[in-house]
Amino acid sequence: MEILQRDELKRGGFAGLRETRLVMDRRLFDGRAEIGTWDGIGNFVYLADARFLPKGETRLHDHKEIDVISVMVEGRIAHEGSLEHGQTMDSHHVQGQRAGGEGFSHNEINPDDTENRMIQLWVLPERAGEPAGFKLYSPKQGEMTRVYGGSTNQDETLDSHTLIDVGLLAAGNKVTIDGLFLAYVTRGSGRINDKTVGDGDLIRGENLEFNAIEPTQLIVVHIDQSN
Fold first, then answer.
1. Model-level pTM?
2. Taking the CB of residue 196, how many other CB atoms lie within 10 A of it?
3. Residue (of 53, 130, 142) closest to 98 by Cα position
4. Is the pLDDT assigned to residue 75 strictly greater than 60?
5. Beta strands in the chain (DSSP E)
6. What is the pLDDT of residue 212?
7. How many C-beta atoms lie closer than 10 Å to residue 55's C-beta?
8. For a Cys staple, 93 with which of 2, 89, 154, 227, CB 3.0–4.6 Å?
9. What is the spatial distance between Cα 197 and Cα 98, in angstroms, rounded to a whole number?
10. How far apart are CA 184 and CA 221, in angstroms?
C-alpha cells in the first residue's frame, strides 16, 4: 500500500481556482504529467483537489470523449453549459458528465463570497462516440454511494467497468472493497489497512479495509469484479 500526500505536491490552477493534481495518468498526460503525480487504475486518469476563489469560475470550456465527475466538499457550485444549464451543486453533491462523441461545454462558478472546494475526476470512456449525458447525486449519510460505473443495462449511473463510490461516513463506519483501489480522503480521518490517513491523503493498494475514526468523506475508485 502507498500513500501520496496532497500537500507535498505542486499547487497550481487556472482562471478562478487553485488546485493540486494528484493523478495525471500517462495515457492522457504523456510528457506533461506533473512530478509526483500517479497514474490511475482502470480507465480513471485524473484527480484534482480544487478551491474556487470567491466568485471564481473555470470559464466556459469544452470536453470530448471524457467522463467528468465532480465531488463537492465545501460550499456550492453553479453549473452553466450545454448539459443541465442552471443546475446547482451544494456541499456533498456529486455531478457526473459524459462528453462522449457529442461533447459538452461547461463553466463551473462559485456563487459565494467565500472559497469552496471541489474534487474533479476524469475517466476515459470505454466506447467512442457515445451521446453526452448528465447525472447528479446526493450521497447518503453513513454509507458509500455509487456515483459512476456499472453495467450498460442500467441508467442510475454512467456505465463503466471503472467504479467510483463516495462515502459520507460516521465514526465507526467500515468500508471493505476487494481488488485494486485508489482512495482519497477529503474530510476527517480513518484507519486504512492498519495505517491512519486523513484529509488530502491518496491511497493506492489492494483489498481496502477502511474504518472511520471521525465523520469522514471518502472517494474510492476501483474495478468491477463481476466480469
1. 0.94
2. 11
3. 130
4. yes
5. 2-5, 12-14, 17-24, 44-52, 61-63, 67-74, 77-81, 88-89, 94-98, 104-109, 117-123, 133-137, 144-150, 160-169, 174-187, 189-192, 195-198, 201-212, 216-223
6. 97
7. 12
8. 89
9. 31
10. 9
Give the model's pLDDT for residue 52.
92
Enter the C-alpha cell of residue 132: 453526452
CA distance 100 to 89: 22
- Asked if 186 and 199 touch (Cβ cutoff 8 Å), the reply is yes
For residues 136-149, average pLDDT: 94
**Cβ 118 vs Cβ 76: under 8 Å:** no
- pLDDT tens-digit map of 93-137: 999 989 888 887 878 889 999 999 999 999 999 999 999 888 999
Contact present, 52 and 115 (Cβ < 8 Å) = yes
For 169-179, the pLDDT digits (tens) are: 999 999 999 99
Report the 10 Å Cβ neighbour count for 179: 12
What is the rounded CA–CA span in Å between residue 11 and residue 22? 10
Question: Is 50 buried (19+), middle (13-18) or exposed (0-12) by CB count in 10 A?
Answer: buried
DSSP 58: -
Sheet of strand 94-98, all strands in order from the earlier edge strand to the far edge: 12-14, 17-24, 44-52, 117-123, 67-74, 94-98, 133-137
Average pLDDT of the residues in 188-192: 97
